[in-house]
Amino acid sequence: MSTHELNFLKVKIEELKEAGVYRELPINYGPCDNVINLNGKQVINLSSNNYLGLSNHPRVKQAAIDAVNKYGAGAGAVRTIVGNQDVIGRLEDILAQFKHEEAVMCFQSGLNCNIGTIQAITAKGDLIISDELNHASIIDGVRLSKADRAVFKHSNMDALEKILKERRKDYNQVLIITDGVFSMDGDLAKLPKIVELAEKYDALTYVDDAHGSGVLGESGRGTVDHFNLHGRVDFIIGTLSKAIGVVGGYVASKQVTKTWLHHRARPLLFSTALPPAATAAAIESVKMLMESTEFTDKLWDNADYFKKGLGKLGFDTGNSETPITPVMIGEEAKTMEFSKALLDAGVYVSGIVFPTVGLGKGRLRCMLSASHTKEDLDIAIKTFEKVGKDLGII
Ligand SMILES: *Cc1c(COP(=O)(O)O)cnc(C)c1O
């Protein structure tokens, strides 16, 4: 009998299969676009975060190619050891300009940014107050911090104020953390109220705008811009992996934040910088957003059209205020069955189930993009209608 069979994992995988949530990842044989070649079949893609269709845009791709020619394939080492390639500095400067903030620090991903930043800006004697539906990378970042923590019910401002009122006096700094856009439901944080409470109780604010950047506000400047709260949110996190169409994450804040992170953010100290191709591609995407609202306008137009179409059919699309369009199904196995039937019919929407969302809150999360044509959306809506009727959902 071998002890190297890792039977404990086999048992767990069997449990996934019994619960109906086991899945094999499909393979995409080409770029991420409105229509993709999934497992050798052309399907309409409603599963990516490529909100603006920039991941396969000719200008963005050319910028990546030019950067490889000039700078090579890899950054070579961590930034604090080998120094910064100038292309990273240019990305940080253009992002600061785009976000109307003093300074930006880039990380290898949004996840790295949260993990590195939350830990670096908090200490023992501080309190972190976090919305219960915040993204997993925030939860991990909070776990790595030596500060105490408190969680408030999703977007419940009374619950947030209660914590501030009762506990503010016991701590040095208090940091309120929220997603700008909640990724599984597409609802917005109550940011004006959060900022008001933070100012009233002398707390700092930290908004993870991974799904808001490139989507909300003027030309996709984000949730803070949408609510006109410039200068009143202390740390604004964005990702370059979603609407920007490449990979990477960043925090927009004051210059002192950037300087401190250079010295204390562990993903910057212990992990190699973004590759030049990704950095240059992201610069090009941001430039395109600053040049025109064409991409964000098309995204919202598509999202409105699709939501209306599903709503007319009687689907429950939850509380979404953004292009994230969840179609609520409920039971886990049913959700996965719906997703599979859609894929068989040529529409790719991944089912989202526990533990990504709560038990019994399974949903099909449709992600709209500026790259979708009206024809794509009409086909997708028709397919939803057929599968929904077949499975007795509508
Ligand atoms: C996607 C996401 C991240 C992670 O971003 P990556 O760049 O993909 O690592 C972080 N926070 C939130 C709220 C997200 O939705």
Structure in words:
This protein is of the alpha/beta class and 394 residues long. The chain has 15 helices and 13 strands. The strands form three sheets. Strands 3-9-8-7-6-4-5 form a seven-stranded mixed β-sheet, sandwiched between helices. Helix 8 (191-200) links the parallel strand 6 (174-179) and strand 7. Helix 4 (86-99) runs parallel beside helix 12 (276-291), helix 5 packs across helix 10 (255-264) and helix 13 (294-313) packs parallel to helix 15. The radius of gyration is 22 Å and the shape is globular. Bound molecules: pyridoxal-5'-phosphate. Pyridoxal-5'-phosphate (PLP) binds next to helix 5.
Bound molecules: pyridoxal-5'-phosphate
The portion of residues assigned to helices is 40-55%
Judging from the principal axes of the Cα atoms, what is the shape? globular
Number of strands: 13
The secondary-structure element order is HEEHHHEHEHEHEHEHEEHHHHEHEEEH
Describe the structure in brief.
This protein is an alpha/beta fold. It has helices at residues 7-18, 58-71, 79-82, 86-99, 110-121, 136-144, 157-167, 191-200, 223-226, 255-264, 266-270, 276-291, 294-313, 332-344, 374-390; strands spanning 35-38, 41-45, 103-107, 127-131, 148-152, 174-179, 204-208, 235-239, 249-253, 324-330, 347-348, 351-352, 362-367. It has 15 helices and 13 strands.
Could you list some keywords that capture this structure?
single chain; alpha/beta; three-stranded mixed β-sheet; 43% helix; 16% strand; binds pyridoxal-5'-phosphate
Layout: helices, strands, pairs:
Elements: H1 7-18, E1 35-38, E2 41-45, H2 58-71, H3 79-82, H4 86-99, E3 103-107, H5 110-121, E4 127-131, H6 136-144, E5 148-152, H7 157-167, E6 174-179, H8 191-200, E7 204-208, H9 223-226, E8 235-239, E9 249-253, H10 255-264, H11 266-270, H12 276-291, H13 294-313, E10 324-330, H14 332-344, E11 347-348, E12 351-352, E13 362-367, H15 374-390
The protein binds pyridoxal-5'-phosphate.
